[in-house]
Amino acid sequence: MPFLFFTVPAFTQLIFSLVAITVRFFRGVINPDWNSISLHCCWSSGHLSGIPVIFVPGNAGSVRQVRSLGSLLQNKTESRKEPFHFNVFGIDFNEELSGIAGMYLERQIRYLRFVVDQVWQIYHPSPKGLILVGHSMGGIVIRSLLRDPNFNPSRIALIITLGTPHKSPRKNALIIIEQFYSDNNLTKNLKGSHVPMISISGGLKDILVPEHLSVDTDFYHFSTTAIDGVEAEADHLCIVWCNQLVRKVSITIAIYQVTVYFLIFLKKRLELKIA
Predict the structure, then answer these.
(1) pLDDT per position as a tens digit, 263-272
(2) Is residue 18, in this structure, part of any structural domain at all?
(3) Which of 19, 40, 67, 256 is the most exposed place for a label (fewest CB within 10 A)?
(4) Where is 54: in which H helix or E strand?
(5) Residue 136 is among the residues annotated as catalytic for this protein
(6) Domain count for the chain
(7) pLDDT class for 1, splitting at 50, 70, 90?
């Protein structure tokens, strides 16, 4: 499996890497000023052509949690001989404890915005949109990004969160996390957002993020107990790699892309008939 590694200044305590589930391989270096990123491509075209999926891990989460989703998406498109393929990227936050320190969340939000900008630039032509998948506090990082006035939300096509406390932090959360929710207006609705958003909770087995915290009016909410084909509830870590659940997530992403691809194809056919 090819890896895409990025390095950042030591004082940030972040090692950012991307895992590209594709036959291509490239590596990059982030300049110390955080203002630019240099990609050294190892294929002739120098650009990616698949559908970008970015995985954002949560509290103490590992970038390798994306492997289950990435492998299923690749197998699904190859076995069905779909006219498209996915490029799955995973952000490595060095397993930071973002669930107990708001300062980690703040810089992870800025970094995710930076990543989206850079991933967008390596596609020519530009993709129709990026698909973001977040686990735990990674979902909060994604949600907060949509509220960033410096971010262009039209670049996001679909958001899926797994075990994310959208409604509020846990009752025993530190004051600094509660303050983060308040400062970023996370308890208020995302008015006018065009992005379809799905929240999946693990059920009773997820004792870290109870199900009621994952329910939010901005998201279509599903519990593992209500998803056909998922025979068991998932705890807070299992929700990322449970094969039955990840298969459903991969199907959702694939169906969404098939729909988009079909609409684009239909539009082109209509344009040809009109011409």
Answers:
(1) 554 445 444 4
(2) no
(3) 40
(4) strand 51-56
(5) yes
(6) 1
(7) very low
